Please model this.
Amino acid sequence: MTYCVGLLLNEGMVCLSDTRTNAGLDNIATYRKMFHFVDEGERVITIMTAGSLSVTQTTIARLREAVDDADATEATSIMKAPTLLKVASIIGETLAAVRLEVNEKLSAAQASASASMIMAGQRKGGAMRLFLIYPEGNFIEATEDTPFLQIGEHKYGKPILDRVVKPNTSLADAEKAVLLSMDSTLRSNLSVGMPLDLCIIERDACKVSRTRRIEPGDAAFRAMSEGWSKALRDGFLQITL
Model:
């Protein structure tokens, strides 16, 4: 399983993903689940993936192949699409097609595979947009009322986002919020694991402004986790019935 989260804020976008992939208790591996497509100053697209590795890797590979195609058009390449809505549509169509192909091959074994994605992006002169793309290829978009989207094991990390994330949340506070959201998930679900990949996309920069890989044993992440645990314990003890 996995956990990925994306935030859409006035100042920019924040994305965070784990890297654990497992096919049973004795088959755990690490695979990157965050991918960037960038034409600096013109367009930035970040995609995070959750679900079947065969589906997600094939989908990303086909998206890259379409971008590199000498005959790429606005209808086939996410780097040429005229709007981010069209980008989400291309990703959705590719994901749905790959899922059907994989499931056809798995049908003899009475098995199936599925995957979902989060896409964050901005093109020059356009607004920042954040989409959650479902296995069937349809999608929803983040709004002012719900400025974050999650895929994978999202239930453990959702409460803090519900309480603190608003469109006017600063990028610094947003980074803290997604990391605490991930920390809650790591503590409650062994199918989510480090390293973590974090990226910041500042408004109108049309590039990935900052990336950070957080490895197991990262001192800053551990200190934040311990501080959060202490704050929760202290808050709990202060509440009276």
Observations:
- The two ends are 38 Å apart (CA to CA).
- Residues 145 and 166 are 8 Å apart (CA to CA).
